[in-house]
Amino acid sequence: DKSLLYSITFNVIGLKEFCISQDMISRKESGSLDKLAEKVLGVYLVKDDSIRRSEEWEANTLSAGHLQYAALDVFVSHLIFERADLEAPVTQVSHTTPDGTHVVLFVQEGGDVVAHGCIAFQQPTVLGRIRVKTPTHSHLVIDANKVLNPSAAAILHINSGEGSTRTKANTFTFGQLQAASSSETGVKDVFQVVMPVNLLDFDKCSDSKSTNELKLQEGLFNNDENDSDVALKMLEAHSAVNIITK
After folding, report:
1. Whether 15 contacts 36, CB under 8 Å
2. pLDDT tens digits, residue range 48-74?
3. Residue 223 near residue 54 (C-beta atoms within 8 A)
4. pTM of the predicted model, to two decimals?
5. Mean pLDDT lowest for which of 11-15, 48-52, 75-79?
6. Using CA atoms, how far apart are residues 109 and 55, in angstroms rounded to an integer?
7. What are the two backbone dihedrals, phi and then psi, of residue 171, each rounded to the nearest 5 degrees?
8. pLDDT at 244 over 50
9. Apex 165 CA angle, 164 and 168, nearest 5
């Protein structure tokens, strides 16, 4: 039914990143669908290489084998998401939190929010003179996009210069970093700041949906039942699909 192309919208997430954020796999492990199925669901997903590499995917009409292959991928992806989503929600920002996640910034634990931003997609070893990648994974580069307190100290950005613009801790302020970035890049609002992980929290007021609120494919499955265990048992028992339980 071609009307489905216009009536269904899709919100897509990276399954590997989601499983990492739920502490189900490590970043070094493979994020391929068959490996995620084995790790998260405890099942072995056979991938027919002849179908996977087939040039018939471009055909207007797919064969039954191709349709089953595609449908199984979607179904297994949904089960992996549902199973990972049952894990305890992540309550703290860490070095494994996916890039692009919206966060709020503090200058001290339990203090007021001083800025909003998101985790930068690039996490270099060093930013300026500040080491980002540490043995304890305690620092993250943040793309700050809204400063609530320009005079707040960016505690890792040491200001070795002279003058009254320095904070008591001899650091640059958020306002100074924003102004310096604007003059260098021409971008008015967004600037990068290195933050201690313990001074970050998830931005619960962001317009963007949190990872746990995203559905792999809206409208494709009946979310009213929300019973991934039953679905998994059906998947394991169905002889028509190429899944073999461990």
Report:
1. yes
2. 888 888 888 888 898 998 998 999 998
3. no
4. 0.50
5. 11-15
6. 56
7. -125, 160
8. no
9. 80
